[in-house]
Description:
- By secondary structure, the protein is mostly helical.
- It has one domain.
- It has helices at residues 2-48, 66-101.
- The chain is rod-shaped.
- The two termini are 23 Å apart.
- The model is unreliable at 51-56 (pLDDT under 50).
Amino acid sequence: VAIAERFAAKHRERASVLERRVAVQADELALAERETAEMTAQLREAQQGRVPTSAPGASSPAAPSPRTAADLESEILSARADRALHEAAVDAQLAHLKKKLGKQP
């Protein structure tokens, strides 16, 4: 019985740590989404503020090229997908531990 109690206590503690980890990751996700929204807005502003390329002296060194914009959007999407996969894995692990401890059916 003592071994079972220690085992249960150890796993309750582990579940608690994972719950806190999920909360922290949710905060990190919210921060990353805000940063992404801010960068996307800045990118759009830069694209809209660009001088047409047909005008003489139209190239602006600060304005990103269309390829750079596409690369940035691809990177943002990739980061979102990676984060979603990571969060899904954490959620699955937390659900498994809760089920193991009898907190979920």
